[in-house]
């Protein structure tokens, strides 16, 4: 079963997922890197996403190899640019930035990398990527040269996600961006969930267990944690267990 098949199966059965987003530029090194991976393996994290808006320190291939050696769950590429598309991962989020109007991120980069991806034989997950925020500029919005959808406009979020699904995108990703001061709101999450049938990933600005649980309860199938992990790699005990908030577990 492919990664997307498993995700859709989990969505249908009400099983939640918790993802650790690893930006190769912001990871520990040496023994602390190995210890961090071992903590991730022992944590409730179900999947690992790898990628970043700007890579200047590490090679994505090396990071994927290290993670695969010490983490049993799926590893998915969350690419910030075509040069982050490498072999070794379970799947690749093929991101179309449907919240913006930058043609390079709607189709341009996709054309640039399509044949390379095909040669690598990666599983492709067509993903509608939506940035959210109020005024504060994040790394993602700066690098993408697009304006985010305001957090008080759930109707725009719903229409954008619905249009993406109608175009054939299989997953929606609502992101407040790395280092965001505010996460995607419950009303935004609920609005997207009510108007689409595909799995919903939510990330950005989630700094504690309460915010992760709130996103699950609002309708997120997958919650992504990035900066909060980077700031406390030596303590992952605060991460909530997604199985405790899954419909399947509550029916037992």
Keywords:
8-stranded parallel barrel; 40% helix; TIM Barrel; globular; 252 residues; alpha/beta; 8 strands
Question: What report would you give on this structure?
Answer:
With 252 residues, the protein is of the alpha/beta class. The protein has one domain: TIM Barrel, CATH 3.20.20.390. The protein is 40% helix and 16% strand. The chain has helices spanning 3-13, 30-42, 60-70, 103-120, 139-144, 154-166, 186-195, 209-218, 227-230, 247-250; strands at residues 17-22, 47-50, 75-77, 91-97, 124-131, 171-175, 200-203, 222-225. An 8-stranded parallel beta barrel has the order 1-2-3-4-5-6-7-8, surrounded by 6 helices. Strand 1 (17-22), helix 2 and strand 2 form a beta-alpha-beta unit. The two termini are 25 Å apart. The mean pLDDT is 91.
């Amino acid at each position: 079963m492919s990664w997307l098949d498993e995700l859709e199966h989990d969505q249908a059965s009400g099983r939640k997922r918790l993802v650790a987003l690893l930006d190769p530029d912001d990871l520990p090194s040496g023994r602390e890197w190995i210890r961090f991976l071992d903590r991730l393996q022992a944590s409730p994290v179900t999947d690992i996403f790898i990628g970043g808006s700007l890579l200047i320190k590490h090679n994505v291939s090396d990071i994927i190899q290290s993670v695969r050696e010490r983490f049993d769950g799926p590893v998915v590429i969350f690419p910030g640019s075509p040069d982050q598309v490498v072999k070794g991962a379970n799947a690749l989020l093929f991101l179309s930035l449907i919240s913006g109007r930058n043609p390079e991120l709607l189709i341009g980069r996709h054309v640039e990398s399509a044949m390379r991806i095909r040669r690598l034989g990666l599983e492709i997950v067509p993903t509608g990527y939506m940035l959210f925020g109020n005024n504060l500029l994040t790394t993602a919005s700066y690098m993408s040269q697009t304006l985010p959808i305001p957090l008080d406009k759930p109707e725009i979020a719903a229409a954008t996600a619905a249009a993406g699904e109608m175009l054939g995108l299989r997953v929606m990703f609502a992101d407040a961006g790395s280092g965001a001061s505010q996460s995607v709101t419950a009303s935004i999450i609920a609005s997207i969930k009510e108007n689409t049938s595909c799995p919903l990933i939510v990330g950005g600005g989630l700094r504690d267990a309460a915010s992760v649980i709130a996103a699950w309860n609002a309708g997120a199938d997958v919650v992504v944690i990035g900066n909060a992990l980077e700031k406390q790699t030596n303590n992952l005990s605060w991460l909530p267990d997604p199985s405790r908030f899954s419909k399947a577990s509550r029916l037992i």
